[in-house]
Amino acid sequence: MPGKHARRHFSQLSEFERSLIIGVKTAGWSTRRVAGQVDRSECAVRNCWEQCPREGTHARKTASGAIRKSTRREDRMIVRQALVDPTVTRSTIREDVGVSIVPQIISRHLAEANLKSKRSFRALHLTPEHRQLRLQW
């Protein structure tokens, strides 16, 4: 029965779901009944319920990682620059936007927007045979 247990296993609990779990568990519902009500696994419900007294809150912890150096507005400006001129370089984008981030971050923002890097087309490379034919002409 593949469709019987189709649940959202890998998505995070929303604040509403967390508060709902805490509320109905406080009312005395079983973990299995709560899991069926919110359509989550029993393990997720148990972890949420155990987190409340341990941390004193049902809210999620803030994520770890590097602090963003660019704002959402600057991110949009980076993408807009690349859309206006597809051959613009990362360093030129950084200067135009006026943000102090490394070029790899600019590439990441463009990749998130499904934009690829493009180089200006200079000329075809001539093979030795083409050079000879050109000279004969």
From TrEMBL:
Residues 75-137 form the Transposase Tc1-like domain. Pfam families: HTH_Tnp_Tc3_2 (PF01498). Coiled coil: none annotated. GO terms for biological process: DNA integration; DNA transposition. GO terms for molecular function: DNA binding. It comes from the Eukaryota. InterPro entries: Transposase_Tc1-like. This is HTH_Tnp_Tc3_2 domain-containing protein.
